[in-house]
Amino acid sequence: MNSKLKSAIALALLGVSSLSYAQTDVSLIIKNGQVLTMNSQKEVYDNGVVIINEDAIVAVGDESLLKTYTSKNIIDAENGIVMPGMINTHNHLPMIAFRGLGEEGIENRLFAYFFPLEAKKLNRNVIYQATRLGTLDLAQSGVTTYADMYYHVDEMAKATKEIGLRAVLGETVIKFPVVDAKDPFGGIEYAKPFIEQYKNDPLITPALAPHAVYTVSEAKFKEIDLLSAKYDIPVLVHVSEFGNESERIEGNTDKLSPIEWLDSIGVLNDRMVLAHTIHIDDEDIALVKKSGAGIAYNPMANAKGATGIAPAWDMYKLDIPMGLGTDGPMSSNQVDLWRTLSYAANMQRLKHNDRTIMIPEQVIELATIGGARALHMDDEIGSLEANKKADVIIVETQSANMRPSYDPYATLVYQANPSNVVTTIVNGDLVMQDRVMKNVDTDDIHQAIDKIESDIAAFAKELAKEAIKSPSLMK
């Protein structure tokens, strides 16, 4: 073999060798963390790596991935827990403007206090500014997606996108005039341009939110269902939060349960997300299972409101799509899920007198992929898997409250708090890194809330004096 041929072969082999070690450049790499994938096998990588390019996860695995991928942006998780962003499946986020009010022991809190307070003090600016505060609170605590039922959802969408979170925003439909609709059930018309504007948005999923079976008529439920089917959007609704809802349904002469009534009028389906579902029986659960509807389990709010304990364990065993919610900031006073995690487990253990059920791994499932299933979004979010959206959080494990950490699921459910979340990523974008918000001026948000608080305080105090005289509708 002549020397020229030898040289050509050597160069060719060198080229093949170089190609075999070429690295793929990506937008972000997270390394050196305990990665909880929450995939179907619940895989955990103790020295794990998450590879992100633009808005999607490319790969999840062990440190060998660092041989294949490179990035200018590498986050060292410093042995913290890397997990999917949490999903709050039920909220009324702008009510954070009223958080802490109405705690004087008012029995008829919803109708004698909540609704009059909203009627007097809500407006576009309050909803926008309160949503900014609420989404700031969510981002700082590791919630990357939330589902909400409220008013002026266009203002909520604007504020949510400023922070950088993902949201399912349901325009409330109810039988009396409200802040964004002068006519009863006016939320339907208000929702239509909102749906058109956001139907293809990368972060905002528009939805319809009939308030409850006792505040929305059969005809309006059917109209909402048709609109939901036309646009393939979710329907968010309160169901069986109170024990006397059957008697309050207009025209319910057969005394059907709320679940049975929704099924009987043909609107119980897999586009629905049912919040609370406390006062339901086995027949109701079977109908929910058959329909494919999702469940938003709100244990902390239900305990605080003394409305009861939902049969969440029974539904979990039947593999009904179910996630965790906080309800509004006047119901649990929280929008993050950390305290709700322990409530989710402990209320079921108390209900069933069984400390072996709803173990921490199952609770974290509800807070992540379970919430995604409940919102019918599990093909995009809820777990760390290739081709899913890059919604990721990092929870540090070096603070005193996090030590020791033998079982990451138990650490998260029973030890962690919002301040342990150090990094929040949504759709591949850094929303918070090392506890520093990336997209907003937090001082500006707090100053706006100071003004709102000053305006509301005196009126709220006087309203409470009247509201406390109103008997509970449960009586």
- Helix content class: 25-40%
CATH class of the domain at 86-377, named Alpha Beta
Overall mean confidence score, pLDDT: 94
Q: Please tell me how large the radius of gyration is.
A: 24 Å
Largest sheet: 9 strands, mixed
Task: Describe this entry's structure for a reader.
This protein has 475 residues and is α/β, with parallel strands linked by helices. The chain has a domain at 86-377: Alpha-Beta Barrel (TIM Barrel). It is 38% helix and 21% strand. It contains 15 helices and 19 strands. The strands form four sheets. Strands 2, 3, 4, 6, 7, 16, 17, 18 and 19 form a nine-stranded mixed β-sheet that branches. Helix 12 packs across helix 13 (360-374) and helix 13 packs across helix 14 (408-414).
Fill in the keyword field for this structure:
475 residues, TIM Barrel, 9-stranded mixed sheet, 4-stranded parallel sheet, 15 helices, 21% strand, globular, Amidohydro-rel, Metal-dep_hydrolase_composite, signal
